[in-house]
Amino acid sequence: xxxxxxxxxEDQMPEFWYNIQADLPAPMPPxxxxxxxxPITPKDLEPLFPTxxxxxxxxxxxxxxxxxxxxxxxxxxxPTPLYRxxxxxxxxxxxxxxxxxxxxxxxxxxxxxxxxxxxxxxNKIAGVKRLITETGAGQWGSSLSLAGAFFGLEVVVxxxxxxxxxKPYRRAFMESYGARVIASPSNETEAGRNILKxxxxxxxxxxxAISEAVEVAVQDEQTKYALGSVLNHVLLHQTVIGxxxxxxxxxxxDYPDIIVGCTGGGSNFAGIAFPFMSAKLKGDRDIxxxxxxxxxxxxxxxxxxxxxxxxxxxxxxxxxxxTLGSSFVPQGFHAGGLRYHGMAPLxxxxxxxxxxxxxxxxxxxxxxxxxxxxxxxGILPAPEANHAVKGAIDEALRCKEEGASKTILFNLCGHGxxxxxxxxxxxxxxxxxxxxxxxxxxxxxxxxxxxSQ
Amino acid sequence: xxxxxxxxxEDQMPEFWYNIQADLPAPMPPxxxxxxxxPITPKDLEPLFPTxxxxxxxxxxxxxxxxxxxxxxxxxxxPTPLYRxxxxxxxxxxxxxxxxxxxxxxxxxxxxxxxxxxxxxxNKIAGVKRLITETGAGQWGSSLSLAGAFFGLEVVVxxxxxxxxxKPYRRAFMESYGARVIASPSNETEAGRNILKxxxxxxxxxxxAISEAVEVAVQDEQTKYALGSVLNHVLLHQTVIGxxxxxxxxxxxDYPDIIVGCTGGGSNFAGIAFPFMSAKLKGDRDIxxxxxxxxxxxxxxxxxxxxxxxxxxxxxxxxxxxTLGSSFVPQGFHAGGLRYHGMAPLxxxxxxxxxxxxxxxxxxxxxxxxxxxxxxxGILPAPEANHAVKGAIDEALRCKEEGASKTILFNLCGHGxxxxxxxxxxxxxxxxxxxxxxxxxxxxxxxxxxxSQ
Lengths: 453, 453
Prior knowledge:
- Two copies of one chain form a homodimer.
- Chain A is of the alpha/beta class.
- The first copy, chain A, contains 17 helices and 15 strands.
- The first copy, chain A, has a domain at 4-10 and 67-109 and 232-446: Rossmann fold (3-Layer(aba) Sandwich), CATH 3.40.50.
- Chains A, B: Belongs to the TrpB family.
- Chains A, B: This is Tryptophan synthase beta chain.
C-alpha cells in the first residue's frame, strides 16, 4: 500500500484565483489610517504597492484572472502533486484517509512563489526596479529572490536576526539568486536603530523586519514593498493550492471532512482552505477547518481580535486581526515563518465568523510528527509545515479512537532541507517548548492601540 | 519566453529498465578474482548482494522489468519533468536549444532513489534486514536511508570524512530517515583502522568508505552491501531517466545532437545517455555524448583504462575501468559525489568503444555556471550537477560561435539545498581549483595491480 499521487495536467492548472470576499456573509472591517482613525483609500497604499496589487487588495470580484506570464512561470512546477498518504495511514493504523497537497516542489521549496511570482510581475510591469521585503524562516525571502531573478528586479531582504543566524544557508540561498540579505533589526533604518538602542541583543521579529522594509520602500518611487503573507492579495494568490486540490480530490473520488493547515501570517492556510470554504458557506458541505499555530506564538488561540499595527514601529495602517500586540516578540523557536504577532485580517475575519477552529502545539510535538511523516512518506517537512502534519496526525488518531473513516486534507507547505539545524537540535534533545502565561499575554496585549471602532 | 515543462503521465512511466549490454558491439571485459586472476562467478557476489541484483549485474537481456512495487514508489515523484531552458538560452544568447531532465524532484533531491528503491526492494524480498553502504556527497546515503525507511530495513552509512564535516546537515537528513551515519575512515573496521594508522588526518575517499562498508557487510547473512553507482545494475536502474527523456523530447518534437552529464561513478550519466545510445550504435543517429568530470579527480581524462580494485583496501574484485589508482585520494573539493578514483566498468567500456568523449572542469567554473543557471532557471544545482551545467553551457556557447542551432540535453541530477556551504565558500572567494601534474597522476597510477589480461 504505497502513497498515491494525483497529478493534474498543465491544462488543468487554475487560470483564476479565488477571492473569498465575494462569498462572505459580512464584509471585512475596514483598514484604518492610524492618524485619522478613518478608513484608508487605495491611494494611501500607492507608495508601497503597484496599482494592480492594490486593486486586488480591495477587490470584491469572485474570480481574478491569473496573467499569462504568471501562469507560464507557475507551470514550471505547478500543478503541484496531491498525495494520498497511505504509508502514513498504515503507520498510524487509522481508518482515516489522509491527503496532503505538496507545495515543496517549487524551486524555492515552498508555497511562497505562488505569490512572489505575481507580485514581481505586477511590480515589473509598473516600472518598479527594486523590491524590499522581510523574511522570517527565509521561505518568503527565497521566493521573492527567485521571482526577482526571473523578472530582473533587485531584491533586498530584511531577515529576522534569529533566523539569519540559525539559517546561514537560507541566506546563502537567497544570495545565490542575487538578493541582498540584511539581519533585522539593522542599523540601516530608523526603525532598526530604535530597537537596537532599546534592545541591543534583540532576536528580531517579523513585526520589526516589516518596519524596516516599509521604511526603506517608501523612500523612492522605483522601490516598492512586498509582503509574503497577511495581505488579501497574498491570500488570493495562494488559492491556486486549494483550487488544484479540489480537482485532485475529485480525481480521487473523495472530499475532505477536515482541512488542516499551519498559520503564521495565514496565507498557506487560506490557500488550501478558502476554495473549499465556499461550499461550507453555501451549506453544501460540512467541513471542519483547523488552523494550527505554535504554542510559542499563539495568535489565534490566545490573542485578541482587535485593531492593531502590522509592524513594531507602527508604520503600517491599523488592521483588525487576531494579535498578541505589535510589541510582542516571540522567542526564537524553530518555525520562523510562524513568528508573527498578528494574523491575516481576512483569515481573522473568517475565524471571527466561526468558520475555522484553531489549535496550538509546542514545537517538540511538531518535530516528532515531522519525523514520523518523513519516515512514512519520504518527505522531510519544514518546521512550519510540521504544525500542519501534527494537526492532521491528531485528527487521524481521533478517527482511530472513534472508528471513523474521515477524509483529512492538509497542506504540506514546504520541505525542511534548509532547516536541518532544527532537526539536529531536536534529535540532540536541545529544543524546549515555550508557553506564555496569561499574565505575559495580557501584558503584551496591554500595548494595543485604543481604537473606538 | 519562459522555460517549458514536458510532463509525462504516470501511465507513460517506463515499465522496463534498458540494458545497453544487449546492444554493444563487444562484450564487457570480465570481472576478475584478485587471488586467481580468473573471472568471478555470480556465487562470488552472494555475500554482498541478493540473487536478483546479481542476475541483473550479469544479465545480457535488453529490457528488464521494473517490479510493480518499485514502479508504485517511483510514481511518488516520477516521471520527472523535462524542461526546455528558454530563460537560460536567452541569458546565453545562444541559437542552441537546451533541455534538461530534472531529477531533484525526488524526496531525497537527486537521481539516486532510482536505484536505492529497487536495491532495497530486492534485499527486502530476499530476507535481508540491514544494508551497509558508503556515501560521498551524501546524495546516495540519503537515498538509501529513504529506501530503508520505506522497506523497514536498517541502514548504516559510511560517509567520506570530508563530506561528513562539510555537510552536517546531509548527515542529519539521513538520520531523520532513521539511518546510522559514521565518518570514514572510522575505527569500526579493520580497513578504517589501517588507514587511520597511516594517515590519522585522512579526509577519506569513496574508495576507503567502500572498503569499510564491504568489510562490515560480509560479516553476517542478514546484512548486505549496497552501492550507489559503478555497478551494472545501478546503471541499469538509472536508465528510467533517459527512457523518459526520449519520450519527452518526442513530445517536444525534438531530438538531441549533444547529451551531457557529470561523471563520478558514472550512473547518472549512463542513466540519461544509454537509452539514446542504441540509436547511435545502430547508426540511426549521430549524437555527441559528453561526460564531464572534475579536474580534481580526472578519471576519464587522465586515468588509465586497466584492471584495478574498486576500493582502497582491495576487498573488491578487479574490474577493468578508467582509474587513477585505488590509492588515489582526491583533495576535498566540493563535489563529493564525483570524488572516486575509478569509473563504472560499463561506462568505461563504452568510452573505450569510442562512443563518448570526456571533459574536465575546475570547480570555480562549475559554481559560476551553477549560479548562472539558478538565476535563469530558478533551480540551484548540486555541485556535482554543476559540472553538467557547465558542460551544457559550453556546448551552447560553441553553438553561438558557430551559429549552429543544435539541441543539447543534459541531466540535472540533483538540487544543491544541502550544499549551501560550498556556495557560501565560492561566493566568499574561498574555493580553489586543484589540478594534478602528470607526475602526480603517474605516481598514483604506479600503484596499479599488475594483471596480464
